[in-house]
Amino acid sequence: MTSKDYYKPKQEQIASLFAHNEAVGVVIEEQQYEVSCSFGDNSNDNGVYSAIQILVNLPAAFPEEAPVLTVSPTGMRHPWIESDVIVADALISWTYQSSLGMIVHSVCEEFRQHPPDKRNNGPEESYGHRPQPPIPSYSISTSSGTRPTSLPTTQTANSEYMAIMSKSPEELEELLSNETAFDIFFNDLDRVKNLKTVQDELQIGNENLAHKTLSQEDAVTKLRAEVQDLNTEYTALKSMFMEKERQQQEAFNRFSSSTVLTRLKAGVYESDDLSESVAQSFLEGSLDHGSFVKQFRELRKVYHLRASKLEKIQKDSLFFPS
Questions:
Q1: In a domain, 27, yes or no
Q2: What are the pLDDT digits (tens) for 16-60?
Q3: Is residue 149 part of a domain?
Q4: Where is the composition biased (Low complexity) (predicted)?
Q5: Contact 117, 39 (CB under 8 A)
Q6: How many CB atoms lie under 10 A from the CB of residue 20?
């Protein structure tokens, strides 16, 4: 389901929170809301609170994922409260169709009917006024897809919250002031360990892929050399082909219809000129009668043969298609 698909149901759940509860404040829009449950009397004598603040934390996948409700002041005792986190049955059995507003309202009614008591001895009572909200959920995407095991649940967020709330004020101050201590604590969180595991797996996968690629370097080099040789051979054969094609075209040009017609016309004119030259020589007395008749007859014979062929060619559709 995309973020657009979540938007409308999420807005409806937030609207129900305001509809079923009176004192609702916005801490972070669409992420955190504060609901005040007051019991009429502002005093808290005999260890009983007269007002409780419920911090409603909406995870990124809400309403597919259940909301996390925490209480303030911290360090209260009640069957529905475990380490400042509300564990009502309606939240444990949360579904997409559950109503956030009605669940929060039922929690307030339960606290009004059975107000929580103070917890006498606990490190949480002396530090801070409100439990930390859970870390939003997320997913890890890799080159091969999304890892289905990397999506932290509300339980994971609560375990991280518990890891912080179990610290004494002195230990918390040490974490804030000592970078080494903070690094040790941070690196020991389950979610951080999971991320490092994923990082290590990705690194190993990348190294294996790099080794596999390098192992094929010799084969790729050999194939590249073969391709280069084939390209050289192709270039030489192409040059030979183009030369033979040029020679073939020249041969075709010698026997083209226009070339044959031009040469035949030239032959007709040549035969006619030669016969006229022989006749002129006879008239001038340069040739005797016998030589004239013999030469003139041969030249005119050639002339008429060429003229006949020329006429036939000009009428032939093979040479002059219509």
A1: yes
A2: 999 999 889 998 888 899 999 887 554 445 555 678 899 999 998
A3: no
A4: 137-148
A5: no
A6: 18
Residue type for position 60: A
User: Cis ω on the peptide bond leading into residue 73 (within 30° of 0)?
Assistant: yes
pLDDT digits (tens, 9 = 90+) for 222-243: 999 999 999 999 999 999 999 9
Q: What is the CB neighbour count within 10 angstroms for residue 30?
A: 12
Neighbours of 187 (CB within 10 A): 10
| pLDDT, tens digit, 9 for 90 and up, residues 235-287 | 999 999 999 999 988 888 877 777 778 888 898 888 888 888 888 888 888 88
One-letter amino acid identity for 11? Q
Go through 228-266 and write b for each residue having 16 or more CB atoms within 10 A of its CB, e for each that does not. eeeeeeeeeeeeeeeeeeeeeeeeeeeeeeeeeeeebee
**Domains in the chain, number:** 4
The length of the chain is 322
Helix, strand, coil % in the chain, rounded to nearest 5: 60, 10, 30
Whole-model pTM: value is 0.38
Helix/strand/coil for 122? coil
SS3 per residue for 85-115: EECCHHHHCCCCCCCHHHHHHHHHHHHHHCC
Contact 78, 60 (CB under 8 A): no
- Measured between alpha carbons, how far is 243 from 110 in angstroms, rounded to an integer? 100
- Domain hosting 227: range is 217-251
Helix (H, G, I), strand (E, B) or coil at 27: strand
Mark whether 195 and 244 lie in a shared domain.
no
CA-to-CA distance for 275 and 271, rounded, in angstroms? Answer: 6
